[in-house]
TrEMBL record:
Belongs to the bacterial solute-binding protein 5 family. The lineage of its organism: Bacteria, Bacillati, Actinomycetota, Actinomycetes, Kitasatosporales. Residues 28-426 form the Solute-binding protein family domain. This is Solute-binding protein family 5 domain-containing protein. Pfam families: SBP_bac_5.
Length: 548
């Protein structure tokens, strides 16, 4: 986002909505029949002086058309699969014609929002310039070239990244910043893009991202102060180091570093959860497919006490698939208050398991009534199966470790054994990744301490069969139908019906939500707010106050 501005930019005014001033695209225009949308591209400049144009937009769409399954927000059947035609009307104008009428807000927020215009410098292969902006024939070769230029995506070292700043490909940018250097140690330095055409050009001469590897290291860096040796002007206060409770997570509580920093929570329009692997080839996946088991698993996670005792009021419970904070009318009436549908209740969880063929007098509980009839465990679950599962979670996060330890104890009280394992973050994401059903797809449950930030929370990205963000490969025909209804209608009742179904089905285990960052901002740094609810930062707005 610092270097490549999307077609539409969201959240810069502190609300979960589009900001047309900061967007490359003008407001979309619709045909009378609601099938065709036209977008005019502003005459902004790339850093090499070229003008942004329709071809830059179509380049991205053509890549999506061929390589969509490599993109996290791709959903089979939706953009660009749901286009009957698209193309260039003028050098600065593109059109998209859809296969039927969809919610116009959904198209803007969840379809056009996926597009990031790409420069001609990317449209090439090992043989030289290509034409992936004019059609799809060159896309495979262009994609392979770009992936090779990027370097090994799972390589833990930074050797290949040190070459990015001088690359004739990656050095051409549209955003307010361009890359100056990327060191072997992971220190990333940006400088202003002198050709940036959008509003809010950078005040600062340089902007650096400094890596840390644990909450402890981050806090020690902050304690040195913004002007101390190795000091940072914007950092993150780890939740475990918040000294006193907060009564409002959007405001925060007393700041232990108030002498030198201002505490600014970044509450994101997101949900948090951990995944179950429905493609696991063992009996684990067959158990995960049982709704009663997922409901029991959710019911043993004590969100309310975690909000109070672990996150010290900097968190809030998450009941389902639509963000509870910031408050919007998108949350269904049943979920706006209380803990519906699955409050913390170990006894209820144990009863659910016992009523479906499990002996819960021992932990792990044992299947004593196999089969698919009433009161039986479910398809493919043999007698003698134990409710014992691996749950891996990211290391270096003390608050998450405390949450997982309490969860382990409460689940055990209901008959579910969770074998916990802390794993280094990048290893966890690489190993517990979406995988096709087969002998190598062996992870069971995984928690990376994150979730998903939405533009419009209709669910096709996370819970539609085959969606790119559907990490565990959950699939349910009714969920697919309800998602389809929510994207083709602007009636909020369709969104409510979908989210209430998902909340009861719990395809993932919802965990307490909390600000994605508790920013600590140097007291003499201005222009930091409003905070973007989609997780972005805008250092081009930052400046030093002489009166501070």
């Amino acid at each position: 986002m610092l270097m490549y501005r999307p077609l539409y930019y969201f959240g810069s005014q502190g609300t979960p909505d589009v900001d047309y001033d900061q967007s490359i695209g003008e407001p979309p225009q619709w045909s009378e029949d609601g099938l065709t949308v036209t977008v005019k591209v502003k005459p902004w400049k790339w850093s090499n002086g070229e003008t942004l144009c329709a071809d830059n937009v179509l380049f991205w769409v053509n890549l999506m058309k061929v390589k969509g399954d490599r993109y996290g927000e791709y959903v089979p059947g939706y953009f660009p699969d749901n286009l009957t035609s698209y193309g260039k009307l003028a050098e600065d104008t593109v059109y998209f014609t859809f296969d039927k009428a969809y919610s116009k807000k959904w198209v803007l927020m969840n379809q056009l929002s996926t597009i990031t215009p790409l420069p001609r410098a990317w449209d090439r292969t090992t043989e030289g310039p290509a034409n992936a902006s004019g059609g799809v024939a060159d896309v495979p070769a262009v994609y392979d070239y770009l992936m090779a230029e990027q370097g090994d995506i799972i390589d833990e070292g930074n050797a290949h990244r040190t070459r990015w700043a001088d690359s004739p490909v990656w050095s051409v940018v549209s955003g307010p910043w361009r890359l100056k250097s990327y060191t072997l140690e992971g220190l990333v330095t940006f400088v202003p893009n002198e050709h940036y055409s959008g509003p809010n050009k950078p005040y600062l001469d340089e902007f650096r991202q400094v890596p840390t590897f644990s909450d402890d290291e981050e806090y020690e860096m902050l304690k040195a102060g913004p002007h101390g040796e190795g000091g940072i002007q914007v950092g993150y206060l780890p939740l475990s180091f918040a000294s006193e409770p907060a009564t409002d997570p959007t405001v925060g509580g007393p700041n232990p570093l108030a002498d030198t920093y201002t505490l600014v929570p970044q509450v994101a329009f997101c949900i948090r959860y951990f995944c179950l692997n429905y493609n696991n080839p063992t009996v684990a996946a067959k158990i995960f497919r049982q709704t009663y088991f997922r409901q029991a698993l959710q019911s043993t996670l004590d969100q309310d006490s975690a909000v109070r005792d672990i996150y010290q009021g900097y968190a809030y419970r998450q009941n389902g698939p639509v963000p509870m904070v910031p408050a919007t009318d998108l949350v269904s009436p049943r979920q706006r208050d209380g803990a519906w549908p699955l409050p913390f209740d170990v006894d209820r969880a144990r009863e659910l398991l016992a009523a479906n063929g499990w002996d819960t007098t021992t932990t792990p509980a044992v299947c004593v009534n196999p089969g698919t009839g009433p009161g039986q465990a479910g398809e493919g679950i043999p007698a003698g199966t134990e409710l014992s599962f691996s749950l891996r979670y990211v290391e270096g996060r003390p608050a998450l470790t405390r949450l997982m330890e309490k969860y382990r104890k409460d689940a055990a009280a209901a008959g579910i054994e969770l074998r916990m394992e802390e794993v280094y973050g990048s290893v966890l994401v690489a190993e517990d990744a979406p995988c096709a059903a087969g002998p190598d797809c062996l992870w069971e449950m995984t928690c990376w301490n994150g979730g998903w930030a939405y533009h419009y929370p209709s669910g096709e990205i996370l819970f539609q069969t085959g969606a790119g963000g559907n990490f565990g490969h959950y699939s349910d025909p009714r969920a697919d139908r309800l998602i389809e209804a929510s994207v083709t209608s602007d009636d909020l009742e369709a969104l409510y019906t979908y989210q209430d179904f998902i909340a009861e089905q719990v395809p993932v285990i919802f965990t307490p939500n909390f600000p994605i960052r508790l920013f600590e901002v140097a007291n003499n740094l201005g222009g930091f707010g409003p905070v973007n609810p989609f997780g972005m930062i805008n250092p081009e707005n930052w400046y030093y106050r002489e009166d501070a």
